[in-house]
TrEMBL record:
The species this protein was found in: Diatrype stigma
Family annotation (InterPro entries): Mss51-like_C, Mss51_Znf
Sections of the chain in a coiled coil: none
Pfam families for the chain: MSS51_C, zf-Mss51
GO cellular component, one term: mitochondrion
Disordered: region residues: 1-22, 46-70
Lineage: Eukaryota, Fungi, Dikarya, Ascomycota, Pezizomycotina
UniProt feature, compositional bias: Pro residues: 1-15
PANTHER family per the UniProt record, alphabetical: GH20023P, PROTEIN MSS51, MITOCHONDRIAL
Ranges where the Mitochondrial splicing suppressor 51 zinc-finger domain occurs: 44-116
Every Mitochondrial splicing suppressor 51-like C-terminal domain range: 170-399
GO biological process: mitochondrial respiratory chain complex IV assembly
Gene that this sequence comes from: MSS51
Protein name as annotated: Translational activator for mitochondrial COX1
Length: 433
């Protein structure tokens, strides 16, 4: 049953629903004006007449450059999308045909950003409560999920984009681990035989049979420990409202979770909310522990690199039935961040636990896969073939350092784990023969 929506506040909104398009530079929202100033200060005009300032993220997208002019920061705002995209009106007009491919999406980003700060009441952020075990959840796509989870009806595309921007994180994990997952071993289902083995183990734990236990001493039954989900390189996802992450617990009424956010940026912008505790013998890494987020969910946050924790044996032992690793947009193959994962990924493979990875775009995802293949050749098995995530964010995001670069949260998903070697590869080689 869905949580009843609260009454909207009496304060009038800053922007009306029909007044969401504004120039970034002249926006009525101070935060967006500051963002426009940042873009003008750091983003460069993409016109080929300028000498390139950096290698393109995707070499296939690179345009030939004559390079007869020095680099120039963007200063001219496209009147159709309201975002600084060129250094001058002339260069904007000359590259208008290429800009037209993303102009509508940039305008959508513009309006979504203004909508989020408009001051209106957001009924789409009133999430559904616990799920009855008798009511099956349909995880085919966003529409079927929201309907079968009894969310309030969302009839507006913009509201749909706003709500999926947050829910994409727990639903990406839940849609892969759930027994009714849209990913299967059937043709086109993307799961590999090894993936079925690994995810089947976790699904067995998260969907336990009824034990027949009771509230008295005679009704005590042994219970499985919580499934530990280690979210590595955590950034924005660690600061999501906790009722967003509780949606993961609602998907598994009889499952238990311990979410562990690990990474040097896992407590960014949360210092006032949770000052980091001192490191003591009982809490050697200064973990911030939120024990009662939900009766079946606990959350811990550790501001450190995972490989540092792994070497101490802090989370040892690991069990593929109870452990899973998740990396949201880790940038494994990105030149600026790949060195941070060189020591971590081989340690993850040693645990033999599933590793779920997402990417901003198809190129970003493929670059990460290529890096893993080069770094850990022959030491891993693919559990889920790469492809578009059924529960990706429907809202597009803008790269402030390059307005031509747009992406959406968790666009693609894939999974792998350390290779398991058979003790007796062939029947004829068994020592009894």
């Amino acid at each position: 049953m869905s949580t009843p929506a609260k009454e909207p506040p009496n304060t009038p909104p800053v922007l009306r629903p029909d007044d969401l398009f504004h120039s970034f530079t002249k926006s009525p929202i101070p935060e967006i004006r500051r963002r426009a100033a940042f873009i003008r200060q750091h983003a460069y005009c993409p016109h080929p007449d300028h000498r390139p300032t950096r290698l393109p993220a995707n070499p296939a997208d690179a345009e030939p450059s004559t390079g007869n002019q020095p680099p120039a920061h963007v200063d001219f705002e496209c009147p159709d999308c309201g975002i600084p995209v060129a250094c001058s009106k002339q260069h904007w007009a000359e590259g208008y045909e290429a800009h037209l491919e993303i102009c509508d999406t940039l305008r959508e980003i513009n309006e979504d950003d203004h909508d989020l700060r408009s001051g209106r009441f957001f009924p789409e952020f009133e999430y559904a409560g616990p799920q009855m075990e008798e009511a099956a959840v349909n995880l085919t796509n966003w529409d079927t999920f929201l309907y079968t989870r009894q969310f309030e009806a969302i009839n507006d595309d913009r509201s749909m984009r706003q709500v999926t921007r947050l829910l994409t994180y727990p639903l990406t994990i839940g849609s892969i681990l759930h027994e009714l997952s849209p990913y299967s071993i059937r043709k086109g289902g993307r799961l590999t035989p090894e993936g079925l083995k690994s995810l089947g183990a976790l699904r067995y734990t998260l969907h336990p049979p009824k034990s027949g236990g009771g509230i008295d001493i005679k009704g005590l039954r042994p219970e499985a420990p919580p499934v530990r989900i280690f979210i590595l390189g955590a950034r924005a996802e660690s600061s999501l409202p906790r009722n967003v992450w509780v949606q993961l617990a609602h998907l598994f009424p009889r499952g238990k979770f311990h979410l562990v956010f690990i990474g040097p940026e896992s407590m960014a912008n949360r210092d006032d909310e949770f000052p980091l505790p001192p490191r003591t013998p009982s809490n050697p890494f200064g973990a911030v522990i939120e024990d009662r987020v939900w009766p079946s969910m606990k959350i811990s946050t550790i501001v450190d690199y995972y490989h540092t924790l792994h070497k101490t044996g802090y989370f040892y032992p690991y069990d593929p039935y109870f452990d899973c690793f998740v990396m949201f947009h880790p940038g494994l193959g990105h030149p600026a961040s790949s060195h941070e994962w060189t020591e971590t990924v081989p340690l993850l493979l040693e645990t033999k636990a599933p590793i779920i990875v997402t990417g901003y775009t198809q190129y970003d995802m493929e670059r990460d896969i290529d890096w893993v293949r080069k770094t850990c050749r022959g030491e891993f098995d693919i559990l889920m073939e790469p492809g578009e995530n059924s529960f990706r964010s429907l809202r597009w995001d803008l790269n402030d350092l390059d307005p031509q670069d747009i992406s959406c949260g968790n666009w693609g998903a894939w999974a792998f784990r350390g290779k398991r070697y058979a003790l007796y590869p062939k029947y004829d080689q068994h020592p009894s023969k």
